Amino acid sequence: MDFRGGGAPKNNAPVRFLALLSKVLSKQFLFPKASFTLAEVLTTLGIIGIVAAMTMPALIAKHKKVVLVTRLKKVYSVTSNAIMLSEAENGFIKYWDFGTEYSRDNLKRVVDTYLKPYFKTISTVESKTDNGSYNTYGFTLSDGTTLLFSLDGSINSGKSPATIMILADFKGRKASNNKKDLDYSRDNFEMEISKYRGKLRFFTWASQPYASTYTREELINHSKYGCNPSIPKYHRYNCGALIQYDGWKILEDYPW
After folding, report:
1. Cα–Cα dist 228/244, whole Å
2. Within a domain: 30
3. E strand or H helix at 54, and its extent?
4. Per the domain annotation, does 217 fall within a domain?
5. In a designed cystine with 214, which of 86, 93, 158, 218 is the match (CB 3.0 to 4.6 A)?
6. How many domains does the chain have?
7. Is there a contact between 240 and 189 (Cβ–Cβ < 8 Å)?
8. What is d(CA 134, CA 174) in angstroms, rounded to the nearest whole number?
């Protein structure tokens, strides 16, 4: 208000309103904020799509490798624990009664006595035929992994069974009769327990069958059972041992 001259107070509201309006208009219209055009947005989205298409396969493959190693390590640990519990009740493996036959009845007796009670199973898996040492019998674990067992001999035992072969099948198949359906680098891994070694290990072929010591190069380059791309998937028996040898990792030279 202005009291000069003794007159009525002067109202400056219209002046202040016009000044404020001028400031608002100058900010919104004279100096507008920066924005993207539709073409720029579409170009950016296109670039993001190209980058995603280039990187997603590698990320998915890496995730699958992690899942595989985690599952393989778990089934190896679960099987090791089951054997340890069995030994606590039944004595060391070298004292287990493997019988003298490779029949399904004898295999079932061995598995039901020394192994099955110490696993958490959800179903039993039985092979359809009785045709010798590759006859299988087993069960499915709670995570869907199937363990298929068979009896095998040993270079130290003559003709009687001395080894229990354990095929871990991550696809949950009911039998392993068709070997060419198996992939020993991704879905299937062979383990074994022997009277003469006394502990669980991955089945390996190196300088000789059932090798107790081996190098990484032997695991990869074995002419028939090596873990490399030139070997058929159903013959890559050494892949489980290679993953374990590499510290439970899948390295760059693994045949993925």
Report:
1. 16
2. no
3. helix 38-90
4. no
5. 218
6. 1
7. yes
8. 14
Q: pLDDT tens-digit profile of 173-187? A: 765 556 778 899 999
* pLDDT reading at 172 higher than 90: no
Integer Cα distance of 78 and 115 in angstroms: 11
- Distance CA(176)–CA(212), nearest Å, equals 25
Residues 6+ apart with CB under 8 A from 159: 153
DSSP letter, residue 138:
E
The pLDDT tens digits of the residues spanning 131-148 come to: 444 467 899 999 999 999
At 105, give phi and psi (nearest 5°): -60, -40
| Contact present, 196 and 156 (Cβ < 8 Å) | yes
Asked if the structure places residue 7 within a domain, the reply is no
Contact 76, 248 (CB under 8 A): no
Range of the domain at 188: 58-206
The answer to whether 123 and 139 have CB atoms below 8 angstroms apart is yes
- Whether 254 maps to a domain, the answer reads no
173 vs 25: CA distance, rounded Å: 74
Rounded Cα distance, 1 and 15, in Å: 13
Q: Is the dihedral of CA 71, 73, 76, 80 positive or negative?
A: negative
